[in-house]
UniProtKB/TrEMBL annotation, chain A:
Its EC number is 3.4.21.89. Catalytic component of the signal peptidase complex (SPC) which catalyzes the cleavage of N-terminal signal sequences from nascent proteins as they are translocated into the lumen of the endoplasmic reticulum. Specifically cleaves N-terminal signal peptides that contain a hydrophobic alpha-helix (h-region) shorter than 18-20 amino acids. GO terms for molecular function: serine-type endopeptidase activity; signal peptidase activity. The keyword Transferase does not apply. Residues 41-128 form the Peptidase S24/S26A/S26B/S26C domain. This is Signal peptidase complex catalytic subunit SEC11. It is an enzyme of class 3 (hydrolase). The lineage of its organism: Eukaryota, Sar, Stramenopiles, Ochrophyta, Bolidophyceae.
From TrEMBL, chain B:
This is Signal peptidase complex subunit 3. One of its GO terms (biological process) is signal peptide processing. The keyword Endoplasmic reticulum applies. InterPro entries: SPC3. Residues 190-199 have a biased composition (Gly residues). Belongs to the SPCS3 family. One of its GO terms (cellular component) is signal peptidase complex. Keywords: Endoplasmic reticulum, Membrane, Signal-anchor, Transmembrane, Transmembrane helix. It comes from Triparma columacea. Pfam families: SPC22. It is a single-pass type II membrane protein.
Length: 185, 213
């Protein structure tokens, strides 16, 4: 069966290569898919005011609320952050954002807010995770607060990141099938 | 005419969209106003925090002299009414709120508990329990301070938006003007005897842990 598919794909590709008009059309199709995905992502950024509106939970530190592989939707509106909210924050010089719950809020008269966080499943607060000497999180460290979740879907992302070859093979295959797909062509 | 791949593609995308619609419907059914009385945040939640007992109250030299107070509290609360079919868990927490010169709002969590929908008992009932997190302020500013206690709960659904519910003020107290140590107090009362006892030893251990942070 696989051989049949491979043969079919190569013959389709050869046909495409011969017919430059069709090739151009399919390439346009492909780029349209890529750009619509990009557009959706960018408009989400505009609506939520968060530089990363969807994140994947990578650790079990918030169990049983969130498990590894859950997807979180973030919102970063200017409303003040209060105790008990689940925020996603980034520590300077560290790539991976952390999802934890706010344990303490101190808000100065000018509105500057200082936060301390803790994972539901951790025994102690997050000071040891912060940058050396950092006692509090500021508003600008927060990427957004979690407003909703989808279970399990993030596992795909985790798998793709853990095994980069899978990512290239999958993306390559998808591109190929979009190119040779006759639907609408 | 259609290859296996086209069919597979169609099936996967159709089932994904069905799932998405179902998730949306589920989240609509759990909007509090649609649910009515069940799961309504206005539902009278009988959360009571009584008998706030101060154990120790001091300034922490190791952390730059910030004030710390340790309490024992009694909590009685029934969260059964807050559960409906789309609730995975409640995150219940007791917050101390106060105002200082440097901060217009201070919120410090003193106690928290996760109640999962699978838990048979959906009440919180603790008596004379040392709070989970001691009240450590940001500065040396807790003496004579008026503190309000509130109970919050974060409703975390299976699929829907999360939402937070706040109670009215459930407790109010004023911290003393002077630092205070239960152990020394006891020592004074018993004429310098062993003092403390088991509770004291536990508190000492706890304090050591706190300072280790």
């Amino acid at each position: 069966m696989i051989k049949g598919v491979v043969d079919k794909q190569t013959s389709e590709l050869r046909k495409l290569w011969d017919n430059k008009r069709a090739l151009l059309f399919q390439l346009l199709n492909l780029s349209m898919i890529v750009f619509s995905a990009l557009m959706i992502w960018k408009s989400l950024i505009v609506v939520t005011k968060s530089e990363s509106p969807v994140v994947v939970v990578l650790s079990g530190s918030m169990e049983p609320a969130f498990q590894r592989g859950d997807i979180l939707f973030l919102n970063n509106q200017d409303t003040p952050i209060r105790v008990g909210e689940i925020v996603v924050f980034k520590i300077k010089d560290r790539d991976i954002p952390i999802v934890h719950r706010v344990l303490k809020v101190h808000e100065s008269p000018s509105g500057v807010v200082e936060l301390l966080t803790k994972g539901d499943n951790n025994r102690i607060d997050d000071r040891s995770l912060y940058a050396p000497g950092q006692m509090w999180l500021r508003r600008e460290d927060v990427l957004g607060r979690a407003v909703g979740t989808l279970r399990y879907i993030g596992m795909v992302t985790i798998m793709l990141n853990d095994y980069p070859p899978v990512k290239y093979v999958l993306v390559g295959l998808m591109g190929l099938f979009v190119l040779t797909n006759k639907e609408g062509g | 005419m259609h290859t296996v791949w086209v069919r597979l593609n169609a099936v996967v995308f159709f089932s994904l969209s069905v799932l998405l619609v179902l998730a949306l419907l589920a989240s609509i059914t759990s909007i509090p106003s649609i649910l009515g009385d069940n799961g309504n945040p206005d539902h009278p939640m009988e959360a009571i925090v009584t008998k706030v007992g101060l154990n120790t109250f001091r300034s922490l030299r190791t952390s730059g002299g910030v004030d710390r107070a340790l309490f024992s509290i009694d909590i009685e609360a029934d969260f059964e009414p807050a559960f409906h079919w789309n609730v995975k868990q409640l995150f219940v927490f007791v917050v101390a709120e106060y105002e200082t010169k440097k901060n217009r709002l201070n919120q410090v969590v003193l106690y928290d508990k996760i109640i999962e929908s699978t838990d048979p008992v959906k009440t919180i009932s603790v008596t004379d329990a040392v709070i989970k997190y001691s009240l450590i302020s940001q500065h040396k500013d807790l003496r004579g301070r008026d503190v309000e206690l509130k109970v919050y709960y974060d409703t975390m659904p299976i699929t829907a938006n999360m939402y937070m519910t706040t109670s009215e003020v459930v407790g109010r107290f004023t911290l003393p003007e002077e630092y205070f140590n239960m152990k020394e107090e006891k020592k004074r009362n018993t004429g310098g005897g062993g003092g403390g006892g088991k509770g004291g030893a536990e508190r000492r251990k706890k304090r050591k842990r706190e300072e280790a942070k």
